[in-house]
Design brief:
binds NADP nicotinamide-adenine-dinucleotide phosphate; binds guanosine-5'-diphosphate-alpha-D-mannose; 11 helices; globular; alpha/beta
Length: about 325
Amino acid sequence: MPKTALITGITGQDGAYLAKLLLSKGYYVVGTFRRTSMLNLERVNYLGIKDKIELMPMDLQDQGNIIKVLDKVQPHEVYNLAAQSFVAVSFEQPLVTGDITGLGVARLLEGIRIVNPEIKYYQASTSEMFGKVQEVPQSENTPFYPRSPYAAAKLYAHWMTVNYREAYNVYACSGILFNHESPLRGLEFVTRKITNTVARIKCGLENELRLGNLDAKRDWGYAPEYVEAMWLMLQQSKPDDYVISTGETHSVREFVEAAFSHVNLDWREYVVVDPAFYRPAEVELLIGDPTKAKERLGWQCKTDFKALVGLMVDADLKRVGK
Ligand code: NAP
Ligand code: GDD
């Protein structure tokens, strides 16, 4: 009998890559989506797996819905990737963000406890929880200091995950993932905004790129490698929390330079700094220490910064060119 995995957030970047990975490992994959007027399956379509997974509506804001889906699917593993995941929007919509990204996790964990506490649980935690960093680099032992409603909601979700592990013995893991990107990244996130606009400028469709804080630094990795770490966390003898990162940091400016130079353009001729994209409170520097993941999971990133920028620009050039 193949194992059944339930992935929330199947329409998102990580949901699509994780579904593809689990299918390749022989899992039966159920992906859940929230009801919208038009279901967007672009990413699972792009990866050619739409017909290989079962799709089911489930909203993290609805406790009854969650319990019914868990009861029907009876998964061995639940990967909770669904969230209001855009930091900038969380300042505009703090309550909805708290309800989905924070309380949604409590609903899911409660559902697992009620339906079957043997279900293994993966929580998509984030380096944003380190926020105003208290230590460089950040590891599993670094104190948290969230700087946005999104980060505060994720921190609540992180501690709920730890609590259900300690209080009810649920096999629950929190993956503290640093930024990970790909050609499937949402267009509002800075990396994809840059690579998409660079491709459009190269093709003569646009002539400027408006950005906010160019000095912010992030530890950017390649998403398909990060979903492998999620799976590994649920295959260990004991549940635990892990930082997943490259161990390198680069500024938004460096990303911009690398993307423009990949297509032989000078970024200074196109980039306009627009304060409209500044955040009320910024996370200035993130750099993770992935030692524990390397030692315990045997996980390590493979794609470096330059290769990541190049593959994202190339994918956008191909798409825009069409
Ligand atoms: P994403 O592309 O924004 O995907 C988020 C998913 O959540 C989408 O499928 C979205 O559905 C779904 N969703 C939103 N509200 C929902 C609700 N009320 N009920 C059910 N589903 C809902 O995010 P991602 O980059 O794949 O990231 C996956 C997870 O990892 C997120 O939890 C994110 O916060 C976390 N994370 C991401 C990174 C990163 O760098 N990518 C790093 C650390 C942690 P729609 O398509 O309908 O919007
Ligand atoms: N989005 C965006 N748009 N960000 C910009 C822009 C712009 O025009 N200009 C500068 N930035 C800066 C932001 O201020 C931030 O410091 C940095 O670029 C990265 O922003 P995002 O790409 O939006 O990602 P994020 O780091 O805030 O959040 C992402 O990574 C987290 C993990 O650390 C999201 O995927 C979160 O869901 C995830 O938890």
